[in-house]
Amino acid sequence: MRAVLRALGNSPQYVVEAVLLTIFGLHRIFVAWRSNGDVYDAKVIFASDISDLGGHRLAVRWLSRLIASDPQRPRAYFERGLARLELNDAEGAKDDLSMCLRIAPEFPGAQQWYSNASEWPPRVA
Length: 125
Prior knowledge:
This protein is mainly alpha-helical and about 120 residues long.
């Protein structure tokens, strides 16, 4: 919980969201574990939620640990690629999205985001 708040900067507008996100994320992981479901995927979703709230660096760290534990899961590469784009690390994002596509060539959205990463940062009109 403290790591989530630190990653989001302790801004009052995010405190409630961070608390709820942590509760729901841990609940999702617990339910997956309890039902012999996909705990790995529940953790990837949790990291993605953290990134969506602005905790991109924290999400990249968590997703990197997940990838190290099971490098054949495309969703973790996809989500880490998106988080890296938010950190303006287009090369890292392309590497991750490329790996995602190598593992699962039809992964939803990966080809489009790979193209976006190739043109990052987006041009402002």
